[in-house]
Amino acid sequence: MKTLIVGIGGMTNGGKTTLATSLQEQIPNSCIIAQDSYFKDDSEVPVDSNGFKQYDILEALHMQMMMRDVDSWRRDPESFFRQQGLESQLIPPSVDKEVFVLIVEGFLIFNYRPLDELFDKKYFMEIPYDACKRRRSLRVYTPPDPPGYFDGYVWPMYLKNREEIESDTSEFVFLDGLKPKEELLAAVYKDICQEIQRLREKN
C-alpha cells in the first residue's frame, strides 16, 4: 500500500475547501481532513487587546486531535475510511498498486510543524486583499464577524502567518484563487495524478 498526503492551505476564503472537495470527488481512495473541524469552543478562544477573538492562531485549534486523525489515516487508510463512513468510496487496491490519498485542508496547516513535515505536495491559495475582504463579507460566520474584524485582525494575521512560512515556500505550488475553479482543479488534479502514477511505478 502506498500513500500520498496533500496539503491545501492559504488565506481565508481563498477557495481551499472548494478545491479540496472537488479533488476528493475525482481522486479514487481519497479523503479530506479539514482544519476548520478542529476549532476549540468559542469560550476557549483568546481575545486580543482590541477585543477581537483570536481564531487565526494555532492555540484556537485542537491541533493534537487533528494530528491523531492524520496519524490514524497514516497507520491504516482503509480502516480510516470505514471509521468515517466512507467505505462505499473505497476501490479495492490491486496488489500494492493503489495509492491512498489524504487531502488536508486549512488556513494554518503549514504553520504547524508536526503536520507540515508530513506533506508530499503543498498548494497555497492566494487572492488579493480586496477580493478576500469581499468574499469574507458575503459569508455567514457563527459567531458573526464584529465591525472592523477583517482589517483589524483577519488580514494582519494572514500576513503574519504567511510570513512565518516564508523560509519554506520553495516547496509550495502557489495558486491564484481568482482563476476559474475548473482551471485550478484541472491543474492540481493533473499534478497529483502524475505523483500517484510515479508512486505506482516506484518499487
TrEMBL record:
GO terms for molecular function: ATP binding; metal ion binding; nicotinate riboside kinase activity; ribosylnicotinamide kinase activity. One of its GO terms (cellular component) is cytosol. Keywords: ATP-binding, Kinase, Magnesium, Metal-binding, Nucleotide-binding, Pyridine nucleotide biosynthesis, Transferase. It comes from Oreochromis niloticus. InterPro entries: P-loop_NTPase. Gene3D superfamilies: P-loop containing nucleotide triphosphate hydrolases (3.40.50.300). GO terms for biological process: NAD+ metabolic process; pyridine nucleotide biosynthetic process. It comes from the Eukaryota. It catalyses: beta-D-ribosylnicotinate + ATP = nicotinate beta-D-ribonucleotide + ADP + H(+); beta-nicotinamide D-riboside + ATP = beta-nicotinamide D-ribonucleotide + ADP + H(+). Belongs to the uridine kinase family. NRK subfamily. This is Nicotinamide riboside kinase 1. Pathway: Cofactor biosynthesis; NAD(+) biosynthesis.
